[in-house]
Amino acid sequence: MMFSQIAFLAFAQLVLAASRTSPPTGCIVVSPSATSGQYSTLQSAVSSLSTTSSAAQWKSQDDSANNDATATIRAFAVGLKIYNINIANTRGKGSQAVALSSQGDQQGFYGLKLTGYQDTVLANEGFAVYAKSYIDGATDFIFGQRQRAWFDGVDIRVKANGWVTANGRDSESNVSYYVFNKCTVEAASGYTVTAGTQYLGRPWRDYSRVVFQNSALSAVINSAGWSVWSSSDANTEYVYYKEFGNTGTGASGTRASFSGSLSAAVSISTILGSSYTSWVDTSYLS
User: Fold this and answer.
1) Which residues are catalytically annotated?
2) Residue 37: how many other CB atoms lie within 10 Å
């Protein structure tokens, strides 16, 4: 299922960082306090969409002001949980085009299929968990600036050479932290990806922080593991790129000098806090 743009807004609980108190023109709005022209449930919003239209089911930075504005689903509601749906941005190669933009606190995404190419998942604000899901793309396809995110049992599939993550943590005080626990990384079905042409991540900002642990990394991952941002702007002086207990061809080799290994796995409570069980659906965790 591919959606027109949908925004999940809980107007009484909008995070200030979102800097928007109303949805953009043409957006389908799902809100628990739905007003005229809005929907109180995701199903009612989806049911309102045409099943016969041949119009393109995507937005991108070809026609949108920023990454969030390109998203098929823009999620701002605190405590939002989404289960068992496919969310696609079909723009393809050539521009930033987000499938899911996560902008609210304590959000949970379970059993989803998230497909795109560049910038598929914008993991940007608050605390979030992505569990037993599928995420694909090629370029920086899991990215964001301030979110603490736990990716658990996620099938990560790459469509071409590029980078899985582009975490944009920009200072020591920025809380952003991505941990991939018991995930798999390999070529997407139907795509031929040359061995060693994909990286676990590159630093969008110079305090980028990402860990892959207890994950199966196929040969698509380069032996260096991690990449600089660009040849002219490495952004690696303060990065925190670590691994623990990974397996597979992509887990071996001489890793980048600015990365390292851990002596123990990072715990979910380190990322989401000791009270995570109050809002995380733990039945989806490994």
Assistant:
1) 119, 140
2) 7
Burial of residue 113 (number of CB atoms within 10 Å: 0-12, 13-18, 19+): middle
Mean pLDDT computed over every residue of the chain: 89
Contact status, residue 202 vs residue 229, Cβ threshold 8 Å: yes
Going 271 to 276 to 279 to 283, the CA torsion angle's sign is positive
Residue 53 backbone phi and psi in degrees, to 5: -65, 140
What are the extents of the domains in the chain? 1-122, 126-272
Task: Write the pLDDT tens digit of every residue in 40-61.
Answer: 877 787 777 666 655 557 778 8
Residue with tokens 């999940």: 8
pTM of the model: 0.86
Encoded amino acid at 126, one letter = G
Answer yes or no: CATH 3.40.50.880 is held by domain 126-272: no
Distances in whole angstroms, Cα of residue 29 to Cα of each of 5, 21, 26: 9, 12, 9
Mean pLDDT of 215-223: 98
CA of residue 224 relative to chain centroid, distance: 22
Which residues, 6 or more positions from 271, have their beta carbon under 8 angstroms from its beta carbon?
Answer: 127, 148, 149, 150, 177, 179
Query: How confident is the model at residue 28, as a pLDDT?
Result: 73
In the predicted structure, residue 109 carries a pLDDT above the cut 50: yes
**CB distance 68 to 23 below 8 Å:** no
Report the sign of the C-alpha dihedral through residues 34, 40, 42, 46, in that order: negative
Within the chain, where are the H helices? 42-47, 268-272
Residue 283 has phi, psi (to 5 degrees) of -65, -15
Can you read off the two tokens belonging to residue 246?
């990974």
Indicate the DSSP class of residue 247. Answer: B
Token pair recorded at residue 171: 């200072």
Cα–Cα nearest to 184, from 247, 112, 241: 247
Q: What angle do CA 103, 109, 114 make, to 5 degrees?
A: 90
